[in-house]
Write a structure and sequence with these properties.
By secondary structure, the protein is of the alpha/beta class. The chain contains 12 helices and 14 strands.
């Protein structure tokens, strides 16, 4: 019974980032990730990173410690490079719990029944936006002016960092390939940075002339890295979308699912939990309905 209980308490939060194009000016350092072993019954917590790995780790380390304290079980952090790898772990039930982006949730929910656990409430809302940004030194005022220019996406499964701008292009009968074209070497004239702060850096430092980023990350960076963000400018704000949620696999352990939901929903009710949430600009965690993500589903279908 003890072994079964311990096994049921396996949780993973995934930290990932990195850039496929290997742009040297962007810091792509990745925290060493531990292996997942079948005989390891510690809680494995995974955070789908929307900022670079080191910063994500620092932001969420205290939250992981808080969950460990509440559950009374050791917690281990596992890291992966992208949303697809996180979804694969959820699909194969190698993890029990993860923080993912809204686009990854839509994809996982459709493909293998990924379920919502809770969602963060930030700035009084459970919604966020995609920002289309450009260099502050440029004269661009709209997405249409970026035809043939270098563009920074975050992740292929990201809603704010890929799906929304791809949807916008589909409305003028374009795709990222046709609109941005190729560079002098014949490669796609866009990059995937695999974190939103990397995308902001790419635009700020002139590695890309435009980019699509998560409004929550951009607003966070505006407060914590104003010198970086001041080199960029927002030229378009998307409609509101359902905020990136906390999820569990389709066949999650019901006892663990209930306990985790209780911990998150009550985190803002004690001083330690409130302090940790404040550090990552979350007011509290709340339950959220699946239909909050319907507008993203609609875009996904139209882009496909």
């Amino acid at each position: 019974m003890k072994k079964i209980l311990l096994f049921s308490l396996v949780i993973i939060i995934v930290l990932f980032a990195g850039c496929v194009e290997q742009e040297e000016k962007i810091n792509l350092s990745i925290i060493q990730e531990p292996d997942i072993r079948e005989d390891d019954y510690s809680i494995k917590v995974a955070i789908a990173s929307v900022v670079s790995p080191k910063e994500s780790y620092e932001q969420y380390e205290k939250m992981v410690g808080y969950i460990e304290w509440k559950l009374g079980v050791p917690v281990k952090i596992i890291q992966r490079r992208n949303y697809t790898e996180v979804n694969d772990l959820l699909k194969t039930n190698k993890i029990d719990f993860a923080f993912v982006c809204s686009g990854a949730y839509i994809d996982g929910n459709s493909e293998f029944g990924m379920k919502l656990l809770v969602a963060p409430k930030m700035y009084g809302r459970t919604t966020y936006h995609s920002y289309i940004i450009v260099s502050n030194k440029s004269n661009y005022t709209e997405l249409a002016e970026l035809r043939g220019k270098k563009f920074a996406f975050s992740d292929p499964l990201s809603n704010s960092g890929y799906l929304y701008p791809a949807y916008r292009l589909s409305m003028i009968n374009e795709t990222p390939d046709s609109f941005f074209g190729v560079d002098k070497t014949g490669r796609n004239n866009y990059i995937f940075t695999y974190s939103h702060d990397n995308s902001v850096t790419a635009v700020a430092e002139g590695l890309a002339e435009g980019g699509a980023v998560d409004s929550l990350v951009y607003d966070y960076l505006s407060l914590n890295k104003p010198d970086l963000v001041s080199k960029t400018r927002i030229i378009e704000v998307s409609p509101p979308f359902g905020i990136p949620p906390v999820v569990v696999p389709k066949n999650s352990n019901s006892f663990l699912e209930k306990r985790l939901r209780e911990i998150f929903l009550n985190m803002d009710k004690d001083e330690e939990g409130k302090k940790i949430l404040s550090g990552i600009m979350i007011e509290k965690f709340v339950t959220i309905d699946d239909n909050a993500y319907d507008s993203i589903r609609d875009m996904r279908e139209k882009v496909k």
